[in-house]
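Subgroup meeting minutes
Present: P.N., E.W., G.H.
Scribe: E.W.

1. P.N. recapped why we're keeping a running log of single-chain structure predictions: easier to compare across weeks, and new members can see raw inputs and outputs side by side.
2. G.H. added today's entry (491 aa).
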Amino acid sequence: MASEAPKKIEDVEMGDVDDAPKPDAAASVLADIKQNIALVEKAVSNLEPRLTLRALRNLSSLRKRLNADILAQAVQEVYPSGQGSHILQAIGKGSEDVSMDVDSSASKEIVAEADVYVQLLTQIHLLDTQQIAAGADFSTALVEQLRSLNRRSLDQIAARVYFYYARFFELEGKLTETRTALLAAQRTATLRHDTDIQATVLTLLLRSYLAESAYEQADKLVAKTTFPEHASNNLVARYLYYLGRIRAIQLDYTGAHGHLVGAVRKAPQIPNAAGFLQAAQKLSIVVQLLMGDIPERALFREPMLEKALIPYLDIVRAVRVGDLNLFEETTKKYAEGFKKDGNYSLIGRLRNNVIKTGIRSMSLSYSRISLRDICVRLHLDSEESAEYIVAKAIRDGVIEATINHEKGYMQSLSSTDVYATLEPMQAFHDRIKFSMQLRNGSVKAMRYPMNADKKDKEEAEKVREREKELASEIENGGLDEDDDAGADMFE
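Output recorded in log:
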């Protein structure tokens, strides 16, 4: 046993060595930060926002390797002497804690965009290290700084800042405290036509309202604002999801289903977006059931959705069969999960759909059935309740039947040819409408090279000038057409 003790101590020591950041890895991360800052500065000087977007895309890989020491070293190298102390204070570092092996003083003043980018890295570091209170205070000061700046080159970075600002307060349970700042940012972004900030802040405001079930205020916000057409797909997906939930609460199930389908299509189909896809699909399944449709079976077999959609698959089975007891048992069994998803109230509305499905199946199976049998099969309280439910189903067009009130039975009518109705035309109309929306969205999402048309115009101008010169020389007798043709052969 004595020989095993040194071995355990050695393993612990090796673990400590492995946990320490390697010098080469730290230098690599620091070089990436400087490269991204250079991209931001180049984007400002060349008025090229795509360079800023490229720097922001590198955040996902950069945040995995970022720590307080590397961030402090970056601040010391990028900022001029005496600046950036508030960042060092936020991450718990002082000037004396930073290595001075390199030049710690920048030779020129840092641009505002680079400054905000470094502070964005600080926000991400505080969030990843669960320093929520410090991150909320730091983000509040950063948002106040953004209000004093009016630079279009800051829009893309500022949009990320607002996102993490709201995220910190949401984790603290104080999301409502951000509404004043977000509404002010929304007004300013609308006046300045800041597409990125406008789209980001609008989704954050909707999230804030829906978190408190303030659906009326959220609907008023949607009615009085216009979502930017050229926003990124991620923001469009979030906006459509929130809009679908609002419409579902307002009983507009057709509109809600259209928004949710758009949200799923706009969302990235990658494992990192599995949470959003699951939430959108859960709500979409409930909305389809409320519309009277049954979701496709293949949806519940997708790898990213299969486990999360098990409770909803049981709900679909209960609704499809029309078994009211099974529906109530399933709802009670998964009540906590449905409440967590925010779909419990919508699932409660499905009770009438379960009853309608049961009545429809009975109308197709029996040409005549007594109200007493309907009451027993659907586990209703009385025959009067069964009569009322059957009458409502006939009025809504769920079944084609008549009720004999004196003898107490339901008489099913002969089924009509579906192709003699307007249903096929409506189905084709919905398909054509969806295809046209998909085509128009694809055209809007297409990107073209910058100033490509100008190059073609310049080349056409040169050709025309050359033709004019040749024509003038021929008219003046200085050049023969045959000589010109021969000259071209030997060029």
